[in-house]
Amino acid sequence: MKNARLLIALLTLVLVGGCNNDGPKESGMALIQTTNPSAVTLNKHTREESDLIEAIETDIEGFKELYDVAVVKGKKDILVAYKVKHLQRFRMKQIEKKVVKHLEDKYPNENFTVSSDYKIFLEAVELEKNMKNPNYSPKKAEDKLQEIIKLQKELT
Amino acid sequence: MGNNNQTQKEKQYQSLEKKYETKRPVLKNCLKAFLVGGLFCLVGQAITYFYIYFFNFTEQTAGNPTVATMVFISMLLTGFGVYDHIGQFAGAGSAVPVTGFGNAVISAAIEHRTEGFVLGVGGNMFKLAGSVILFGVFSAFIVALIKTLLIQWGVI
User: Fold this and answer.
1) Which residues of B touch A23 (CB under 8 A)?
2) Contacts of B146 (CB under 8 A, 6+ apart)
């Protein structure tokens, strides 16, 4: 019995410890806390662009079922990630539909990727943090964005 | 056999039996099953977040490795003899979640080990769990078939 406990403890330690090094470090507590990340553009930093994404962010924040919105704009795609309030999570699909419809009606020329997934949100926050670093190249950022969008499309 | 066919004596016996039979504490059992089953789910949720946080899994895809891990853990616990005690205490709370599946496989394997590895362990390991797999796969097949047909016909 005692041996068994020890073995379990060791196993969990190995399992958990082994994967410790490649986790996201900077986005830290975004899974649990409200972070309210600011909207970012990856390529052009013109006035027009930043106005556009700011407008999108305030739009999405207007939905009372959600909190914590992250907006990232790449070359062509705009990634919108949000967290749904816990009791509203039963209606997650409907809310997503509503958000997509609202966005596409209001900004018909843009290409949106909308997600309520925690992972997508986490990655978006990490990307936003990375963008503050001046050494982080736009090319790398765009690649990362495409990677996130690919992740969002994955189903199995 | 309906109640109408019972003789006077049978009825008498049944009322007597009812008087002496120990009452099943249904409500208490339900409560225990609810709490312990909920605890399992809590662990499962923690593992899901672990996979989301440290690996490239979204909420959509993190379910698969989580199930595998939970089954693995319950297999270990069965082997060490811990799961029996949990099962005795919680009843359905420990049998209905996917952890009960791991328990069914391993306990059968342990039970028949004396009969040899091929005819004993191999032949009996899936006696109980095999039907679970069979029904799961088959019903999934049927549901997928119906869904595919409906999509092909353009109903959904």
Assistant:
1) 53-54
2) none
